[in-house]
Amino acid sequence: METRELPIVAGHLALDFANTVDDPLGPARHDHLATPAELVRWAARVGLPVELEPTGAVLHEAHALRDVLNRVFGAVVDGTPPPWPELRPYAAEAVARSHLDEAHQLAWEPTTDGRFLLWPVAQAAQDLLTSAEVHRVKRCAGCPWLFVDRSRNGSRRWCAMNDCGTHAKIRKYVDRRAERRRSGLT
Ligand SMILES: [Zn+2]
Predict the structure, then answer these.
(1) Rg (CA), the chain
(2) Distance from residue 139's CA to the centre of ligand 1 (Å)
(3) For residue range 147-156, what is the model confidence (pLDDT) as tens digits?
(4) Please, what are the domains in the chain?
(5) Which of 2, 26, 31, 87 minimizes the number of CB atoms within 10 Å of its CB?
(6) pTM of the full structure
(7) How far is CA 85 from CA 12, 90, 174, in A?
């Protein structure tokens, strides 16, 4: 199966990082961060610094952090207590390795192992978890992806209308037609 370009649709760095496995529970499952080069490519797409390629060990850590983010914000969506102790070491390391830039934002110097790529993501996750915007975190109605619903009336349902939303509509249409055929209406 041809791999599509990963859509970046969550509206937040931490959730975009969580959403880097396409179709996680489905037949088209594809990890878009399967190699260090792919992690660098993703980082470039979301505007993170990409000076150095991460080692295999850091890629492994990146996958672990991604799992943590899915558990933490999955719990937020489900209304259960987020497992903060799982995220805390990543957030603590991000703060410990940071400096304050001229705009009073945390910033990080590149490290030769590429580990510096994880820190802005971990920091973004902590920021989101402790902000009012956390109440706008939702899970797509068609897949396990997470996003921040910034629609004025909180009505966003899909990670992206042109894939999940459309697929759901087509499925509904096909189901309705099958239903009509079964009941002899067509
Ligand atoms: Zn979706």
Answers:
(1) 19
(2) 8
(3) 999 999 999 9
(4) 13-159 (1.10.3300.10)
(5) 2
(6) 0.89
(7) 21, 10, 45
Give the Å distance between the CA of 158 and the centre of ligand 1: 5
CA 160 / ligand 1 centre spacing (Å): 6
DSSP-based three-state secondary structure for 57: helix
Ligand 1 centroid from CA 130, angstroms: 25
Cα of 162 to ligand 1 centre, how many Å?
Answer: 10
Q: Which two tokens stand for residue 67?
A: 């799992």
Taking the C-alpha atoms of residue 71 and residue 1, their distance in angstroms, rounded to an integer, is 28
Residue pair 18/146 in contact by the 8 Å Cβ criterion? yes
Amino acid in position 39: L
pLDDT band at 139 (very low <50, low <70, confident <90, very high): very high
Ligand 1 centre from 175 Cα, in Å?
Answer: 19
Tell whether the torsion through CA atoms of 142, 147, 149 and 151 is positive or negative. negative
